[in-house]
């Protein structure tokens, strides 16, 4: 049953079978308004249109590109890359969904939005799918992460069948609604990251140019190969060198080695740029905070590369 | 949970793709990097001003030591580092302490046989364990308490 908050008009999904007779009122997760739950026999009111209409489903399901930004090593620039790639694609005119699967919930912080709901509510089914999204920018929608995802992980871990498909199933309502779905993952290797790798078809690995990260890359490549065993459509599509610092001798050398292994999958590097670390504090993307900075230039290059169009954003 | 469980534990089979080739090259490169970086740090003139490079090949091995002896080894290393002998600071790695102590004990065993300290102590250890329980061997991976 879908009930609508009379105050803010948002739609909530309620499982009637689990609702006892004693429960008479509901509290809206968005505005905190308390209101009586309509009984099933009551006159159905027309559900209002969603406040911020989603893009029309022009993109067909198969043309919707799903990209995970992932590496088990922490602090290599996953979130910075996911956010600025998604924002850049939206600026270039694509409809983009950014999914944050990290309990740190940093994507919303970086975009300066405070969503009331997100991936957790989608996966637990507490809200109808559209209500879980927040429109962060023109053409850019966010399905936010956050601490509550810990509960989702337990939920997945308890499943003894198709646990790895939980995220894919939860995201089916958005099939074909966007041109790109960019998924940010948490560091480490857990049930949610495995779910992401079963949902996406493309993987983008940000690699900071240090020995420790090469170690992480090796480990992650092995894990990726084991997922590919069950999910044959999954490909490592892009390796993005991050924190490139020409002053560090080893950074250049590692870059050369990686290029010789990954060849055409190697993307133009993202340089170390202090503007990239300042922008999140202002809730801005790098294009908004410092459009002329090396960081903005490098991420624009990455957007062109991923979209396969050199003309974009110029 | 079977697919998920296998993936979490890293037990899922891996397919052979061009990825595997890259994985092998990465592993090789990583070993080279680690190998090169390790002696580099030791050579750093500010950290170890006069440490001579040991030409003898070394190997990392795993034997079980009791927690107590590990603690004592750490204490000994600290004590040696604080002490100064003939104007020389004894800043020594635990590997060197273990190597030197072991060499001395083994040399004595070689020279004196059953009359050596090592032989006598070990004989006592075996006698005591024989009295207590029939086995004296630690299985690989077993905790020593
Ligand atoms: N190219 C860069 N130059 C300078 N600072 C950067 C760059 N990329 C990222 N940073 C900063 O480095 C830190 C780590 O980046 P980020 O949060 O994107 O990494 P992460 O891989 O998502 O980390 P985690 O694994 O914890 O999720 C952040 O403070 C970010 O602002
Ligand atoms: Mg992150």
What does this entry show, briefly?
The complex is a heterodimer of chains A (314) and B (145). With 314 residues, chain A is of the alpha/beta class.
How would you characterize this protein structure?
The complex is a heterodimer of chains A (314) and B (145). With 314 residues, chain A is an alpha/beta fold. In chain A, β1 (2-4) and β2 (11-13) form a beta hairpin. The mean pLDDT of chain A is 91. In chain A, the strands form three sheets. Chain A has a seven-stranded mixed β-sheet with strand order 7-8-6-9-5-10-11, sandwiched between helices. A two-stranded antiparallel sheet of chain A has the order 1-2. In chain A, strands 3-4 form a two-stranded antiparallel sheet. Chain A contains eleven helices and eleven strands. Chain A folds into two domains: 2-42, no CATH class; 65-307, P-loop containing nucleotide triphosphate hydrolases (Rossmann fold). In chain B, β1 (84-85) and β2 (88-89) form a beta hairpin. Chain B has a two-stranded antiparallel ribbon with strand order 1-2. Chain B has a domain at 10-50. Helix content of chain B is 59%, strand content 3%. Chain B has helices at 2-9, 18-43, 67-82, 94-112, 117-132; strands at 84-85, 88-89. With 145 residues, chain B is mostly helical. Chain B is built from five helices and two strands. Classes of the chains: A alpha/beta (314), B mainly alpha (145). The A-B interface holds A 156-157, 159-161, 163-164, 189-191, 194, 211, 214-215, 217-218, 221-230, 236, 254, 257, 261-262 and B 1-4, 6-8, 10, 12-15, 17, 19-20, 22-23, 25-27, 29-30, 33-34, 37.
């Amino acid at each position: 049953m879908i009930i609508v908050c009379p105050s803010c008009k948002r739609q909530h999904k309620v499982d009637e079978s689990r609702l006892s007779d004693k429960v008479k009122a509901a509290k809206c997760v968005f505005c905190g308004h308390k209101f009586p739950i309509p009984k099933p026999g009551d006159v159905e009111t027309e559900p209002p249109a969603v406040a911020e209409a989603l893009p029309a489903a022009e993109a067909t399901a198969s043309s919707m590109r799903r990209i995970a930004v992932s590496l088990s090593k922490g602090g290599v620039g996953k979130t910075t890359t996911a956010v600025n790639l998604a924002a850049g694609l939206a600026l270039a005119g694509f409809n983009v969904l950014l999914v944050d699967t990290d309990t740190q919930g940093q994507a919303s912080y970086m975009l300066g939005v405070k969503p009331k709901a997100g991936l957790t509510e989608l996966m637990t089914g507490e809200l109808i799918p559209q209500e879980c999204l927040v429109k962060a920018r023109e053409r850019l929608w966010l399905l936010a992460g956050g601490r509550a995802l810990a509960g989702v992980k337990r939920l997945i871990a308890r499943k003894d069948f198709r646990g790895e498909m939980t995220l894919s199933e939860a995201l089916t309502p958005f099939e074909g609604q966007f041109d790109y779905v960019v998924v940010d993952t948490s560091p480490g290797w857990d049930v949610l990251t495995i779910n992401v790798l079963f949902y996406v078809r493309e993987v983008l690995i940000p690699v900071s140019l240090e020995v420790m990260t090469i170690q992480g890359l090796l480990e992650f490549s092995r894990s990726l190969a084991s997922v590919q065993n069950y999910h044959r459509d999954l490909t490592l599509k892009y390796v993005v060198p991050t924190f490139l610092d020409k002053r560090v001798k080893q950074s250049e050398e590692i870059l050369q080695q990686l290029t010789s292994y990954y060849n055409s999958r190697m993307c133009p590097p993202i340089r170390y740029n202090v503007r990239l670390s300042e922008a999140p504090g202002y809730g801005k993307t790098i294009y908004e905070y410092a459009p002329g900075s090396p960081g903005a230039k490098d991420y624009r290059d990455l957007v062109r590369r991923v979209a396969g169009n050199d003309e974009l954003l110029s | 949970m079977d697919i998920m469980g296998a993936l979490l534990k890293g037990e899922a089979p891996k397919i052979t793709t061009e990825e595997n080739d890259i994985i092998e090259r990465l592993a090789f490169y990583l070993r080279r990097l680690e190998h090169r970086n390790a002696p580099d740090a030791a050579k750093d003139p500010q950290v170890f001003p006069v440490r001579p490079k040991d030409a003898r090949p070394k190997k990392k091995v795993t034997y079980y030591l009791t927690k107590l002896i590990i603690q004592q080894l750490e204490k000994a290393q600290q004590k040696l580092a604080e002490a100064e002998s003939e104007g020389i600071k004894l800043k020594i790695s635990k590997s060197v302490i273990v190597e030197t102590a072991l060499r001395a004990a083994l040399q004595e065993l070689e020279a004196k046989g059953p009359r050596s300290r090592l032989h006598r102590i070990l004989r006592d250890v075996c006698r005591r364990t024989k009295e207590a329980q029939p086995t004296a061997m630690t299985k690989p991976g077993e905790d020593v308490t």
